[in-house]
Design brief:
This protein has 208 residues and is an all-alpha fold. The protein has eight helices and no strands.
Length: 208
């Protein structure tokens, strides 16, 4: 278990770091005035926007994955593989984020990012359902059912919201990305709120 959690934390840390590599400081020799510097910075805004979206997204899934493993007491070969496929979706996030930032006005780029989000949510859900089915959890049946209901609701809710946001790219790509950011910020704030209540004795599961 500790090895699996350590591997997961490492993959998340690397993915979060790689995200920023898509941001390049403008070459000094091509900037000759304050105006040119401002104009060049404005051109970087789409990359900054997608970087923020990618960072928040990975942060949410890291928190959700960590929370699940507070309840999972042991693992087996199949659970390890489910987590490895989940980490595959995590590790490819920097690519889909960079692809989106480079082709931000293209519907295919938005759709590819949505596919990455969908895989993250489905695999994290599969992780929990398998652990529950194989009795790998450290909580009683009543708590298992409560947490499972929360996970199921969050999966359906988040995937529906992501799909609606992506469909907005047929109107405007920036509108679609803006809504995705708002959705992720909402989940981030909810996770923070739940975590505080959990520390006061109320156990909750937050998962996409």
């Amino acid at each position: 278990m500790q090895r699996l959690e350590a591997l997961s934390d490492g993959v998340f840390a690397i993915a979060l770091t790689i995200l920023v590599l898509d941001l390049k400081v403008p070459a000094r020799q091509f900037i000759h005035s304050e105006k040119e510097l401002i104009e060049t910075f404005i051109q970087l805004l789409p990359k900054l926007l997608t970087y923020f979206l990618g960072f928040i997204t990975l942060g949410i899934y890291w928190l959700a994955h960590s929370t699940q493993f507070h309840y999972i007491s042991s693992s087996d070969r199949n659970l390890n593989w489910i987590n490895l496929f989940f980490l595959l979706a995590v590790s490819i996030m920097p690519f889909t984020t960079a692809f989106l930032s480079e082709f931000i006005n293209f519907k295919f780029a938005v759709g590819l990012y949505w596919l990455n989000l969908s895989l993250l949510g489905q695999l994290l859900g599969a992780n929990w359902y398998y652990a529950k089915k194989k009795n790998l959890l450290s909580i009683n049946d009543e708590e298992r059912n409560t947490v499972t209901r929360v996970i199921k609701r969050r999966i359906l809710e988040s995937q529906t919201l992501y799909t609606l946001a992506v469909l907005l790219c047929f109107i405007n790509a920036y509108l679609s990305i803006g809504l995705l950011i708002l959705i992720q910020l909402n989940y981030a704030l909810v996770i923070y709120s739940k975590s505080r209540r959990k520390s006061q004795g109320n156990q909750n599961m937050q998962c996409e």
